[in-house]
Design goal:
The complex is a heterodimer of chains A (about 450) and B (about 475). By secondary structure, chain A is α/β, with parallel strands linked by helices. Helices cover about 35% and strands about 20% of the residues of chain A. Chain A is built from 13 helices and 16 strands. Chain A has helices at about 1-20, 35-50, 100-115, 120-130, 140-145, 175-185, 195-200, 205-220, 255-265, 295-300, 305-315, 335-350, 430-455; strands spanning about 55-60, 65-75, 85-90, 130-135, 220-230, 230-235, 295, 315-325, 355-360, 370-375, 380-385, 390, 395-405, 410-415, 425, 425-430. Chain A has an eight-stranded mixed beta sheet, sandwiched between helices. In chain A, strands 9, 12, 15 and 16 form a four-stranded mixed beta sheet that branches. In chain A, strands 11-10-13-14 form a four-stranded antiparallel beta sheet, with no helix packed on it. In chain A, strand 10 (about 370-375) and strand 11 form a beta hairpin. The longest helix of chain A has 23 residues, at about 430-455. With about 475 residues, chain B is mainly α. Among the domains of chain B are: about 155-220, no CATH class; about 295-365, no CATH class. Helices cover about 70% and strands about 0% of the residues of chain B. Chain B has 19 helices and no strands. In chain B, helix 17 runs parallel beside helix 19 (about 470-480) and helix 18 (about 450-465) packs antiparallel against helix 19. The radius of gyration of chain B is 36 Å and the shape is extended. Chain B starts with a helix and ends with a helix. The chains are: A alpha/beta (about 450), B mainly alpha (about 475). At the A-B interface, helix 1, helix 2, strand 1, helix 5 and helix 6 of A face helix 1, helix 2, helix 3, helix 4 and helix 15 of B.
Chain lengths: ~450, ~475
């Protein structure tokens, strides 16, 4: 018994040493892989260190019962402050694409550390944004991938969830619908109708997918990114080609803005933005990659993906980040990946504060929720959230922005939008009833005048 | 005059009409929006749903068969994943299903000790304790009744316990059973004492009787053949007895051990009942039904056992079985107490079997290798050198096979002491920052008690949601209260 115990202690000590050694230049972050329990504990540690600006919550359970954990960071965690935009990072929806998962954990730790060390940029960001970090959408898949013996991890094992479902093909395919609407007329956004039937009663949706859909519908996210592995590029909508061919540039109405967003990420990642970077594998076709970004359809067609689902069912703009040629690299590489991506990750969150934003209220000052904000020339409308607040991401330029709501008269305003920060544009809408009232009063006045004049 | 009035009236009417028509012509810019929503309803609600789902299916099928991104097609991967998943699931299920029916039988038996008069009353108690109890329990003749259908009396129970103690040569059996009964509140201290006397008496009788008959004590499963003498009403106890053999190796005086063993016992028992007679004829043959149910998922282990058919290997085979069962029990216990998840336990055992496949080539009895320790199997194997070496060997091989991502098994153990340190560190950083922050802003000393209350509340809420484990929560609360 004795020798066993001492070996145990030694192993424990060795591990502790190894953990300490791998922190490197970033104090307080240990660059190693986190299994489910370790992930949970890492998030709890961040919360314990920064309890006034963080909160942990879960959006549901994976198929095998693991919590889909989210760490939220803001100056008022747990509440949506009117006018404060919401942001999210989701990683590891493919369980064997492990780098994103780790980067999100490191980012949580980093933001907490930097906040406490007085980093003004970070403090500003956390005070003005509500940041949601989900390190793993597919914890079951990750466990499977991580449990493989040996160094080399299979390209597929652990990719799908525990039911064998590829979560990034599992979302309702709204691209198809929007393409039809483009041709024949129809809504250009918020295409997920009948939540209950399309989601809750849909047996084809994995529990992870359902949980994320509810999450997207619940919180008025403005900007988001979806972290993957297997290549190095920032991918933007649309992912599915219009003609159903394998490769075709499929621009969304916000193509200009998406390119700007994707570049905002890639330009701080030296590997991603390197124009002379060789492709990850010899025969890879990366002809669609430019400046480290690519249109989804131009690269290859993906139906039922989460990225496009965000854009077409809600107000959220999402891009897909491929962060490593190797889906599940050696643990020693993790620190490098952090170095490559840290600035990009922070800078991308800052993109939330671009375009126009503001409130839509009625003449009495009450917020109008679900009002439509449309921009002339961009066939994609967004809506106001519960407090009447909206955030419309726009690239620099001159725009006409219209706010409308049922029962109200539309108001159009001209705005000149810089690169950043977001321009504040509020709307006060007059309701139809009010206008009718005005006109009725006018009529009454006229009638009174007439009757006085004509003496009846 | 009249005509003037009429004229005026007509004029008025015209004016009114005019005004009314103008009212309706007032701009209604939202009309177009209304049209749109109507249009939307047609397109998005009625039509696309089924199509959407159908299209998603067809596209998904098309995409799956033509994944142009990856070098290989995803279809190749799918069966693999499916197999992995099904096997894992079956293993997990196997473990889960075993756990359920075990408890009631044992408890049911022992309930007769305090309440000898009314068997039905006791049986209801068993129900109360375990809602997962199967109807099978009632039909099972061995546990509640003798062969002739009469319920077991207290004397029978005493006899059974005495037999067990005799066979295992271990008084610990009695302690375990009694402490469990006491814990469940089924017997009082006095009753426990009485039971002890009765069992001691019965044991004494047994010893004298058996000494006369010159029976050789045999810890092997072959001893079952000799149980003919004791009658088939003790059948129910045979396999559990064998399991208790291994139980002795574990940390003793742990009620929970018993429960785990009990749970496993249940399956073994049922099968024993069915195939008892058959087995006796088959003699030494390791029969999957005779209680090695746990091991059926370890094909390589089975092959190894089968290869040890000869007489001289019997001891080694027995040892191996002991080790495997102990490991399985331990893993179950770990899973039960949440130290590891079922999936981790399953994958550990899977890896174990794979490693056994490698080892099957080498004979048993290799020299002792200093083990790398994984907390998972840091158990007490001090009764047999062979056992120790075998486990150590298995351990070492498993270490080699482990994945590169993280030392999973050690980390579950090393994180136990390290975890509270991580949390402590995090809390310390927070307090430091609070102090500094409040000083900078010129505030007075931050309200520690308010913070503590807030944290307590948050911790409770997180425990409830499954974000923090209970013991972790307690640790955190403790740290805060010590500040």
């Amino acid at each position: 018994m004795k020798p066993l115990f001492s070996s145990f202690l030694f192993a424990a000590a060795a591990l502790a040493l190894a953990a300490a050694a791998s922190t490197g230049t970033e104090p307080g972050i240990s660059f190693e892989y986190h299994r489910y329990d370790e992930l949970r504990k890492a998030l709890v540690s961040v919360w314990l260190q920064c309890p006034t600006i963080t909160r942990i919550y879960t959006i549901g359970e994976s198929f095998e019962g693991r919590e889909l954990l989210v760490l939220e960071m803001s100056d008022n965690p747990g509440t949506h402050e009117p006018g404060e935009p919401e942001f999210k990072y989701i990683a590891n929806m493919h369980g064997n694409e492990a780098v994103g998962r780790e980067l999100v954990i490191y980012l949580a730790q980093y933001l907490c550390n930097q906040y406490q060390q007085g980093n003004d940029t970070i403090i500003e960001l956390i005070h003005n944004t509500r940041i949601h970090l989900m390190p793993s959408m597919n914890p079951d898949g990750f466990e499977k991938a991580a449990s493989q013996p040996g160094e080399i991890k299979d390209w597929f094992v652990g990719r799908s969830n525990a039911q064998g479902v590829d979560l990034n093909r599992n979302f309702p395919d709204l691209d198809r619908i929007v393409y039809i609407n483009e041709r024949e007329g129809g809504a250009n956004n918020h295409l997920l109708q009948n939540m209950k039937k399309a989601v809750d009663e849909n047996t084809k949706l994995a529990p992870e997918t359902k949980a994320v859909i509810h999450w997207i519908m619940d919180i008025p996210f403005v900007l988001s990114a979806n972290l993957h592995g297997g290549d190095v590029v920032a991918n933007y909508p649309y992912d599915e080609t219009r003609s159903e061919s394998a490769h075709e540039y499929s621009a969304s109405p916000d193509d200009v803005m998406f390119k700007s967003l994707a570049r905002a990420y890639s330009m701080f990642n030296p590997v991603m933005s390197d124009p002379h970077r060789p492709p990850c594998r010899k025969n890879d076709d990366d002809s669609s990659f430019k400046d480290g970004i690519t249109n989804g359809g131009a690269w290859y067609s993906v139906p039922g993906g989460m990225q496009d689902f965000n854009y077409l069912s809600s107000n959220c703009f999402e891009i897909t980040l491929e962060l490593s040629c190797d889906k599940f690299p050696n643990e020693e590489m993790l620190k490098n990946y952090w170095e490559q991506n840290r600035d990009s990750l922070v800078n991308y969150i800052e993109q939330t504060h671009r375009g126009v934003k503001g409130f839509v209220r009625d003449l009495q000052g009450s917020p109008i929720s679900n009002a439509t904000i449309s921009v002339e020339g961009i066939d994609h409308d967004i809506t106001t959230a519960k407090d009447g607040d909206y955030w419309r991401l726009l690239a620099p330029g001159n725009y006409k922005v219209a706010a409308s709501a049922p029962g109200f008269l539309t108001v159009i305003k001209k705005v000149a939008v810089p690169y950043s920060p977001a321009t504040r544009v509020d709307f006060e809408l007059e309701s139809l009833m009010e206008r009718k009232e005005e006109e009725r009063e006018e009529l009454m006045d006229w009638w009174k005048m007439m009757s006085e004049t004509l003496n009846f | 005059m009249a005509s003037k009035r009429v004229g005026l009236f007509v004029l008025l009417q015209l004016v009114v009409l005019n005004v009314v028509s103008q009212t309706s012509a007032f701009p209604t810019p939202t009309a177009s929006a209304d049209d749109k929503t109507v249009y939307n309803r047609q397109l998005t609600e009625e039509r696309p749903l089924q199509e959407q789902i159908a299209e998603a299916d067809s596209v998904k099928a098309a995409v799956q068969s033509a994944e142009s991104k990856q070098p290989a097609t995803s279809k190749d991967a799918e069966p693999e994943q499916g197999d992995d998943f099904t096997m894992l699931k079956s293993l997990a299920d196997g473990q889960k299903s075993k756990e359920a029916p075990e408890g009631p039988v044992k408890k049911g038996d022992h309930q007769y000790v305090p309440d000898e008069s009314d068997s039905t009353k006791s049986r209801r108690l068993a129900d109360d304790y375990d809602s997962t109890k199967h109807g099978m329990d009632y039909d099972d003749p061995e546990s509640f009744r003798q062969v002739d259908g009469t319920p077991l009396t207290a004397e029978d129970i005493v006899q059974k316990i005495a037999n067990k103690i005799y066979e295992e040569d271990d008084r610990g059996v009695f302690d375990r059973i009694v402490s469990k009964l006491l814990k469940l509140g089924l017997i009082t201290e006095n009753q426990a004492d009485t039971l002890e006397y009765q069992v001691a008496e019965a044991l004494q009788d047994l010893i004298t009787k058996n000494a006369k008959n010159n029976e050789i004590e045999d810890m092997d499963q072959e001893s079952r053949g000799e149980q003919d003498d004791l009658g088939s009403d003790t059948d129910a106890w045979e396999t559990p007895r064998r399991r208790y053999d291994e139980e002795d190796d574990d940390e003793v005086a742990n009620n929970d051990d018993d429960e785990t063993a009990d749970e496993v016992d249940r399956d073994a028992e049922e099968d024993v009942d069915n195939s008892w007679d058959k087995e006796k004829e088959e003699g030494n043959e390791v029969n999957p039904e005779d209680g090695l149910q746990d091991l059926q998922y370890f094909p390589n282990f089975y092959r190894l056992l089968k290869s040890l058919d000869s007489e001289q290997d019997a001891q080694e085979r027995e040892t191996l079985i002991t080790i495997m069962k102990t490991l399985i029990d331990f893993v179950k216990m770990m899973v039960k107490y949440g130290t590891i998840t079922p999936e981790e336990g399953v994958s550990y055992l899977e890896n174990l079997d794979a490693m056994i496949a490698m080892q099957t080539k080498n004979k048993l009895g290799k020299s002792l290798v200093v083990p790398d320790i994984s907390g998972l199997t840091g158990k007490n194997f001090d009764e047999d050198d062979n056992t120790k070496s075998e486990t150590a060997k298995m351990q070492k091989e498993y270490e080699n096979l482990k994945d590169s991502t993280k030392e999973e098994q050690p980390s579950t153990e090393t994180n136990q002491p390290a975890k509270s340190e991580t949390y402590l560190e995090a809390i310390r950083k927070n307090i430091e920052w609070l102090k500094k922050h409040n000083k900078e802003e010129g505030k007075n000393d931050y309200d520690l008690s308010k913070l503590k209350d807030f944290m307590d509340q948050q911790v409770d809420s997180y425990i409830e949601k499954g974000i923090i484990a209970k013991d972790e929560g307690d640790t955190i609360k403790r740290i805060y209260s010590s500040l």
